């Protein structure tokens, strides 16, 4: 199965936004999403509907066997993940944070 490159990138973006919107169990622990590195095997195809235009399609592993290696290309790029206001995108953790030392009021000092 092959997917338009724009759809593959949009799917990663949507997953990051869903993770950021999902409430976490422990509000003390959040992750800032840093640069997102992506790498794809793509095939350049002429668009039959739009004359002279080409489309990049991400080639799935199962479809690669039927595609000539000479027609596929590997592309890699890094996206900077930012909110529209320029701040970091934060993802809340669903895992509980460290418990810490607990109540130390009953401890005896030497």
Q: What's the gist of this structure?
A:
With 110 residues, the chain is of the alpha+beta class. The chain is built from 2 helices and 6 strands; from the N terminus they run βαβββαββ.
List keywords for this structure.
alpha+beta, single chain, 2 helices, 31% strand, 110 residues, four-stranded antiparallel β-sheet, two-stranded antiparallel ribbon
Please explain how this structure is put together.
The protein is an alpha+beta fold and 110 residues long. The protein has one domain. The chain contains two helices and six strands, in the order βαβββαββ. The protein has a four-stranded antiparallel sheet. Strands 2-6 form a two-stranded antiparallel sheet. The longest helix is centred in the first third of the chain and has 17 residues. The chain is elongated, with a radius of gyration of 22 Å.
Distance between the termini: 69 Å
Ranges where pLDDT stays below 50 over 5 or more residues in a row are: none
Helix content: 10-25%
Tell how many strands the DSSP assignment holds.
6
Strand content: 25-35%
Major sheet, described briefly? Answer: 4 strands, antiparallel
What value does the Rg take, in angstroms? 22 Å
Give the overall shape, derived from the CA principal axes: elongated
Q: Please provide the ordered H/E string of secondary-structure elements.
A: EHEEEHEE
Count of helical stretches: 2
Instruction: Identify the strand order in the major beta sheet.
Output: 1-4-3-5
> In the residues, how many domains can be counted?
1
How does the helix and strand content classify structurally?
alpha+beta
Mean pLDDT rating: 76
């Amino acid at each position: 199965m092959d997917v338009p490159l724009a759809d593959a990138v949009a799917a990663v973006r949507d997953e990051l936004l869903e993770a950021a919107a999902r409430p976490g169990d422990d509000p003390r622990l959040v992750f800032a999403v840093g640069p997102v590195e992506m790498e794809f095997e793509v095939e350049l195809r002429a668009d039959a509907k739009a004359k002279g235009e080409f489309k990049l399609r991400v080639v799935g592993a199962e479809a690669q066997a039927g595609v000539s290696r000479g027609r596929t290309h590997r592309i890699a790029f890094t996206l900077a993940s930012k909110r529209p206001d320029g701040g970091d995108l934060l993802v809340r953790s669903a895992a509980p944070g460290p418990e810490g030392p607990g109540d130390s009021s009953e401890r005896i000092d030497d």
